[in-house]
Design a protein that fits this description.
This protein is mainly α. It has helices at about 5-40, 45, 50-100, 105-125, 125-130.
Length: about 130
């Protein structure tokens, strides 16, 4: 895998993790704030606590939600990538075996590059059919 593709995948994973973190932080902030309001109105001991302590509890919920959501999003993304890579490697091993080659890491990497080039060639329109002649 070349550097540009690796950088692109890294940026995609970072963006996915950031979005999940913001959503999780917002969700758990609401939960923490709701519990703080319920605790304030239903429990006299909690009512006597300072605003700073209540804010600390809400921020603890926020951080918990941020970390939990970001981590679970990244783990699911990595699992999906592993599954795709496993399927691709299985396909490469089968195809290389049909050709009579041993599926080494180098051969699998060459097979992947050939596959990418084939897909790019198929996706580009034929100049003769595109011009309408």
């Amino acid at each position: 895998m070349d550097r540009a593709r690796r950088k692109e995948e890294l940026d995609k994973a970072y963006e996915l993790q950031s979005k999940a973190a913001m959503i999780g932080a917002a969700r758990y902030t609401g939960v923490g704030f709701g519990l703080a309001v319920i605790g304030h109105y239903s429990w006299p001991l909690f009512r006597r606590q300072t605003l700073a302590f209540k804010g600390f509890l809400v921020s603890a919920f926020t951080i918990f939600g941020l970390v939990l959501s970001a981590e679970s999003a990244l783990l699911s993304h990595e699992a999906e990538k592993r599954q795709i890579e496993t399927q691709l490697r299985r396909e490469a091993r089968i195809d290389l075996a049909r050709r009579g080659r041993v599926a080494t890491e180098t051969e699998i990497a060459r097979w992947k590059e050939e596959r990418v080039q084939r897909m790019q060639a198929e996706s580009q329109p034929d100049p003769q059919t595109a011009s309408g002649t």
